[in-house]
Amino acid sequence: MKKKTWEQAVIWARETKEMQPLVQNCYYDDPIELSAQRFYNSEEWAAIQAILDFAPQEQVLEVGAGRGIMSWSFAKSGCEAYALEPDPSLIVGAGAIKQLSNKTGINIYLVQEMGEKLPFEENTFDYVVCRAVLHHAADLREMCQEIARVLKPGGKFLAIKEHIAETPEELKIFLSRHPLHHLYGGENAYPLKEYKLAIQSAGLKLIKAYAPFDHPISWSPLHSFQSLRQQMQQSLSKRLPQSVSEQLAHHDFLVKLYCRWLNFRCKTPGREYSFLAIKRS
After folding, report:
1. CATH says 6-212+269-279 is which class?
2. 3-class SS at 251?
3. N vs C: which end of the chain shows fewer Cβ within 10 Å?
4. Do the Cβ atoms of 148 and 142 come closer than 8 Å?
């Protein structure tokens, strides 16, 4: 079967009933301005704001911006937002970013280039962010070096939702299970140590690697803290009286311990990690 483009794969998902949860969770639905607003109101965006603690007027570059919803959220929050997206698509690329900006009146500086060769001067940006992008890199270390180059000293890099496959066998399983890879063939995943080495060898200090259940940036929108609390309660109720399980699940500290246990158990091929790093001064 001839491979589809990424745009064609997303169109197929939009038109397929059982793919609607994926479309919603990935913000591929239209109208794009409502999709972007939903991201802006999400637990994930609140978590990004808390992690980066950015201020209005600061410069942010999103690498592999896709539809531009994260760039739009930064711009809506007062930042000078640059969206790097080589795909011209009206649905999943630069064309969608232009539509989002035009429909909402919120300015996004659009740059149609690849992430391995960023067309910016050294020490330009206060923040560089990407969402489900590093695992697509043809050269992971080169992309991280470019990100480090354009960051200002002390600037922060946040990579969100990067797929992990520790072995070739895990990668094969992940690709076979991915709902869109069979259509367009563009998915990938790296071992956890490869991400860490790529970030650190670029001259960035790795502050935190967030495991799948460490933080909303990794678990949202599939989960929320409340849904994990409920999941914990349901699990405990199989072994303990209902009243006891409800009381235990009421404590945030115990829910966080439960999340650590979920991380320990999570060996799913393609599981998602997020990374926070800072450029050394």
Report:
1. alpha beta
2. coil
3. N
4. no
